Amino acid sequence: MKRRGFAQWLACCIAVAAVGLPQFAFAADEAPDAFIKRLSDDVLGAIKADDKIKSGDVSRILTLVDAKVMPNVDFARMTAATVGPPWRQATPEQKQKLQDEFKILLIRTYSGALAQVNDQTISVKPMRSSPEDTEVVVRTEVRGRGDPIQLDYRLEKTAGQGTGWKIYNLNVLGVWLVETYRSQFSEITNSKGVDGLIAALQERNKTNATKKG
């Protein structure tokens, strides 16, 4: 379970808390599997080199999120897919609050696994895609001690300024993150609406913060 926890954190780390290169350094024609490999290597290198990140320093991770990685993730799409139909009725202010709280939830949920980082490496599996594809799945394995852990990513190709690949969903051991949280969130929005979901996320984040000291 500890290794699964690390894999889950790594996936979310790449999605919302990875230490990558500035967006302008990404090649517009970079292959999706090369994109994931580079980000994965950057994440592992950054974790191993920073004791504060390894200890789960949430404030440090949040700073890295906003400064380095959010340009590489379609986090609005990820949050919208997780919230489901109620997202369409949400106001711009509610949507922003949902994104903010969901990001914190992911980081706080998996930050404790960082202390387990040691000799892990990322292996990207061969994939078939064509230059015309705008959405792909990149499959990887986290390798270290014990059995390899499946870690896959759904990517979309963006157009215009900042053209490149962006992550919008991820899978650990056969379980997609968006679908997992959607089932949890739908129970709340069905009974309490969008404001109820925001309040529940805020309360959960406060509780997680207290547990982590």
Unreliable residue stretches: 16-26
Structural class: alpha+beta
**Pattern of helices and strands:** HHHHHHHEEEEEH
Beta-sheet strand percentage? 15-25%
Strand order of the largest sheet: 1-2-3-4-5
* CATH level-four homologous superfamily name: Tgt2/MlaC
Q: Fraction of residues in helices?
A: 40-55%
CATH architecture: Roll
CATH hierarchy, class? Alpha Beta
> Kindly state the mean pLDDT as a whole number?
80
CATH topology: Nuclear Transport Factor 2, Chain: A
Write up this protein.
The protein has helices at residues 2-17, 32-49, 51-54, 58-69, 75-83, 86-89, 92-110, 177-211, and strands at residues 121-124, 135-143, 149-158, 164-172, 175-176. The protein is of the alpha+beta class and 213 residues long. It has one domain: Tgt2/MlaC (Nuclear Transport Factor 2, Chain: A), CATH 3.10.450.710. Helix 1 packs antiparallel against helix 7 (92-110), helix 5 packs across helix 8 and helix 7 packs across helix 8. The chain is globular, with a radius of gyration of 17 Å.
